Amino acid sequence: MKNYLFTFVKIKILDLLQNRKNAIMTRTLLFGTKICLITLMFCSCYSVKNLQKSGKILIENHKYYINDSLKFSYRFGGDYQLIHEKSTVRKSLRNNRLRLNVNYCLAYYQTDVEPLLDHYLFYFKDAKTANRALARLGKYNVRTPNPIIDSANYTVAHGIVLENNMGYIYIIGKNPQKEFIILEKEYINDIFQQIKIGKNYANVDISDPFTLARKYDFNEDSTVNYLLPLIKLQQNTMNYAYNIRSKFQYIEALGTFQSRIGNLDEELNNTLQEFYRYSGIKIADSGYLAIDNDVLDFLIEKCKEEKIVMFNENHFSPNNRLLLHLLLQKLYNSGFKYFGLEMLWEKDINERGFVVSKSGFYTCEPMAANLIKKAKNIGFQVFYYESFKNEREKEEAQNIYNNTFRLDSLAKVVILAGFGHINENISANKHWMAAELKKIYNIDPLTISQTSYYVANTNNWLAVVDTIYRKKPALQADIYLSNNLDYSTFAKLDNYIDYSIELPDSVINRINKPVNNDYIISVYRTQDYQTDNSAIPAYNYMIKKPLRDKIISIPLQKDEYIFFVRNEYNELIFSGNMKIT
Fold first, then answer.
1. pLDDT digits (tens, 9 = 90+) for 501-523
2. Most CB atoms closer than 10 Å: which of 7, 170, 348, 427?
3. pTM of the predicted structure, to 2 decimals
4. Chain-centre distance of CA 116, in angstroms?
């Protein structure tokens, strides 16, 4: 094509310039034209630059390369590091005696742990281009169906034909350290087996975000690791960005692990706002039946004549639990003696009096643990009712009845459940726990929802929403709250005391070093921790760099406390006793 165009242009120009006088000009023009045509042809050749932008790296225990434009993915070692600099790629190709044009290189990886190796991903738009490029390597051919094992050069390679004439991928692994047996096994038995093309290319084996985070949830001594699961989620955000379902699940997981650390208010609020957008939770900015402290009196007045009162919660909104903190004593004074929690998974809580790491998943959040501790101190009989069977809602209703009314016909019961379990309406598709309780035992609970509305841009920390002004389907609960209660407001309402932690300069200097370590302060009730070191902290404080203040103040219920400063790998940095300021 290039020679034909050049000849055509040459003839045309010679026709126009027939006299000898213009010969020099003609040759100059022809030379320039040839250069332009060559440049044109070169520029018309594809570039991998745009295709590089379509490539994404997902990380878990392995790395996954996914290219949306090429509809291609595969899995390889988690310790491979992507190198962007073209000069570094060119140098690596030269050092490994791989005579390939760097412009065809879609991605290049190196490892910094043994066995050391170089990993290349090349793209060619057609077989002719591919084979012309690969011919310089000898026996390599993009159409060869089986991987090529080049023991003499410590290299393995494999060509992949993409669907719908989208071109060819060529993967090369090169081991300069002569640990070729390891390299060969890794590529032949793993990497080359994980290649996906076509419509299922994005179906990679990534754990759901909760499973990913919970791999790092506990330390060797059964204490909870509050930092590492959150860090792993933040590092792997891209893993869950492919569809709304995985994105929504990621938001829930991120919020859950953020909620365990008390001073991540801004971060958790941003996550909650995103959750509200996805879930359709509505803003309640006017039309209140009561606000702030008046809500507490309103709720007690509504509850006092009831047999059973059900509150719900967003599992990663600690403020939903803080409201129960403020109500428990008044509910107990009104005759309520039983307190059931969906989040609790063990029977031993009444004997021990506080939760530990094995007590449940959501009970690992300090405000949840504090709530259960407070209920026990007041005098409540605390019980679990969760069911993991197929008829979960029905089983939960039966468990509530068996733990309360079956034993005590005059029982008055408080329930804290998640989200829709307190919905009262019965539909053809779903019978929720509250509806099942009414259906089976003819017990009609007072249901109070905290998850349908939220307050935005207002100074009100709590409000009862007047649903007469709300356009929505049939109401599922009796009372709807908009709960914007933060920890500092709660601490003042519940008469908490400011406790201080003083860190020495040596600890502050270590924390402020420019390394990747994150640090957390976990505050424990001394008696609970000494009884069982897997007790849940009363508060977790994330240290944000740079740390400038030697003294950190945290409002807490009056008690004796100890604290531990640890990094994300549970390494103890400093410990001490809390002091009242």
1. 999 999 999 999 988 899 999 99
2. 170
3. 0.73
4. 31
